[in-house]
């Protein structure tokens, strides 16, 4: 058997074994675990006048969704790619964003005094958060 034949046969065996390993992993009890999970963040929003002077600062603890989890990725030998390896990387990301209006309930003047008058005591802001998460090929922003 020639050296070229041995190399091709070796590459075939490696790719075949990688395929078997990937098939076993994909069908195991450890599937991809990309989830949409509840989270809490501390929001701070400042409001300035037309001259750039701080008018008020509003804060609140807000419940929001986040994407978290693991996705199957792999690197396998390849006789087709220039590097000799085929890399497939997947990341847990949002598949759909929803827009919400959040009311910040603790507002303060520049001196740190809490504001209580109507129209100043709260501030509404718009926030986009993940509504659904799933595994996407890394670097694929074409959704």
UniProtKB/TrEMBL annotation:
The keyword Signal applies. This is Partner of bursicon. Gene3D superfamilies: Cystine-knot cytokines. PANTHER family: PARTNER OF BURSICON (PTHR41151). GO terms for molecular function: G protein-coupled receptor binding; neuropeptide hormone activity. GO terms for cellular component: bursicon neuropeptide hormone complex. Residues 1-26 form the signal peptide. InterPro entries: Bursicon_suB, Cystine-knot_cytokine. Keywords: Signal. The keyword Signal applies. GO terms for biological process: G protein-coupled receptor signaling pathway.
């Amino acid at each position: 058997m020639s050296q070229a034949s041995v190399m091709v046969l070796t590459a075939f065996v490696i790719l075949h074994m990688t395929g078997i390993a990937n098939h076993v992993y994909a069908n195991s009890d450890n599937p991809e675990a990309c989830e949409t999970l509840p989270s809490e963040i501390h929001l701070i929003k400042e409001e300035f006048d037309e001259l750039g002077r701080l008018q008020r600062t509003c804060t609140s603890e807000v419940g929001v969704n986040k994407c978290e989890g693991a996705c199957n990725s792999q690197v396998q030998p390849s006789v087709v790619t220039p590097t000799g390896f085929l890399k497939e990387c997947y990341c847990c990301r949002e598949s759909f964003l929803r827009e919400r209006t959040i009311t910040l309930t603790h507002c303060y003047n520049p001196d740190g005094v809490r504001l209580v008058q109507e129209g100043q005591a709260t501030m509404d802001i718009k926030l986009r958060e993940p509504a659904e998460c799933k595994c996407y090929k890394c670097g694929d922003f074409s959704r």
